[in-house]
Amino acid sequence: MVQGLVAWILLTAYTVSAVGLALYGLHALWLVLHLGPSSPARRPALPPRPPADDSLPPVTVQLPVYNEQHVVLRLLDACARLDYPRDRLQIQVLDDSTDQTTALVQARAAYWRERGVDVTVLHRADRTGFKAGALAEALPQAKGELVAIFDADFQPPAHFLRRIAPLFIEPGAERLGFVQARWGHLNADYSALTRCQALALDGHFAVEQAARQQAGYPFGFNGSAGVWRRACIEDPAVGGWQADTLCEDLDLSYRAQLAGWRPRYLDDLEAPAEIPPQLLAFKRQQFRWAKGSIQTLRKLAGPVWRSPWSFTARLMGTIHLGSYLVHPFLLLLLLITAPLLLLNLNPFWPLAYLSLASVGPPLLYAVAQRRLHGRGWWKRWAYLPLLTLFGTGLCLSNTLAVWQALRNRPSPFLRTPKFRVEQPKDAWQRSSYVLGLQPLILGEAALMLYASAG
Question: How far is residue 81's CA from residue 272's CA, in Å, rounded to a whole number?
Fold first, then answer.
């Protein structure tokens, strides 16, 4: 009887995990099919008839930074060189740093002020609300009708604002809440790890975001390389920046869409950024994204399903917010496969048809590389097996993140360290920002041995 109960529990867990993973695969396949035949993502970024300077809306560029001595000057210089009327451009450096980043920023801000650029440094003595808190505190001092946001590791092209700002003044754009640009990569070819991350990010932007935009499904602001309409952020129905999740960007963008504001994604405008070269930094970033996404799911699943959106839009929005649930499903599948085999239980054939959904993610990444890189797409797509291994290795850490989010356990916003690594010869190992090993690595090593033995 006990053995029968154990068998039933294992088979049920296996079925739930297999179905969950299949839904994720079908979601990826649906997005690929919905995107359909499309032209390459890289098209001329400048509009054919740009508006006159005196008709452009004023823009405030907000740069939230925390201990970013390696990259902050590159960011500030790039923003100071943005091709936009000087009398309509304000730059706010939102500095929460506790190291020499503050001195570097103050000196470079003074340099650009002498050259006619409106640069303000807003330094906080504490990190209340973390990034969301810094953005919220700085907004009352912003001069712009539009607010552009860049994280410290980004290097926006000079034409960035010229490309996006006119979209907010087009006829019928009164309810355009935010515009998200596609992320590029400053160091995609630095290592196998960065190539894998580039492959994953390209899939998210070139297919997922593009397909959601095309289909009219809700999608998220990615926290950087985007522009908000200030009136949207300050709309009482939206509620402004809030710090109760680790994905304040995803949270705000969904609340804005629930309040009737429209998003827009630009596939043809790229803003490059640095990919974490350290595996532990990548893992920390994924932990934050996983926990923040599920926190947002807990917070907004109810409002999403009570919204007037179509059933398909509500379903796709829910799947989007819950996408990191794939990691607990994967971990559960890894843990119970060996016991099933030992008990001579074989649920694999009855569920074999679910494996057809596994074509979804590989196809998604292939289409993304084809859209971005043309005929040479397969050279980058060839890193998919390694990306799959990295994803499997993250399942324990990300499952912990999901568990903490579901239990509503708070945690601080832990930044992803940046090192200004652009060329293969650039080193990061001696930086004070390098992360040390954590106890969880023992569990991950044990899981690796267990999976190998199974």
Answer: 15
Amino acid of residue 213: Q
- In order along its 454 residues, the chain shows pLDDT tens digits of 656 788 888 888 888 898 899 999 999 999 999 887 655 655 544 555 778 888 999 999 999 999 999 999 999 999 999 999 999 999 999 999 999 999 999 999 999 999 999 999 999 988 999 999 999 999 999 999 999 999 999 999 999 999 999 999 999 999 999 999 999 999 999 999 999 999 999 999 999 999 999 999 999 999 999 999 999 999 999 999 999 999 999 999 999 999 999 999 999 999 999 999 999 999 999 999 999 999 999 999 999 999 999 999 999 999 999 999 999 999 998 888 888 777 777 765 556 666 777 889 999 999 999 999 988 888 899 999 999 888 888 999 999 999 999 999 988 888 899 989 887 777 787 788 888 888 887 887 777 677 666 5
Provide the pairing of β-strand 226-229 with 176-185: antiparallel
**To which H or E segment does residue 91 belong?**
strand 89-95
d(Cα 373, Cα 315) in Å, to the nearest integer?
Answer: 31
Is 75 part of a structural domain of the chain? yes
Whether residue 328 is contained in a domain is answered as no
Task: Tell whether 128 is covered by a domain.
Answer: yes
User: Structurally, how many domains does the chain consist of?
Assistant: 1
**Residue 216 maps to a domain:** yes
Phi and psi dihedrals of 340, rounded to 5? -60, -40
Q: What's this model's pTM, rounded to 2 decimal places?
A: 0.93
* Domain CATH for 207: 3.90.550.10
Q: Which residue has the tokens 């092209």?
A: 157
| Per-position DSSP letters for 247-285, written without gaps between them | -HHHHHHHHHHHTTPEEEEEEEEEEEEPPP-SHHHHHHH
Question: Is 99 annotated in the active site?
Answer: no
Angstrom distance (rounded) from CA 266 to CA 256? 18
- Active-site pick, 95, 96, 153, 251: 96
Domain range enclosing 243 = 57-316
Residues in Cβ contact with 235 at an 8 Å cutoff, skipping those fewer than 6 apart = 256, 259, 261
Active-site residue 96, yes or no? yes
Q: Which of 95, 153, 202, 249 is catalytic?
A: 249
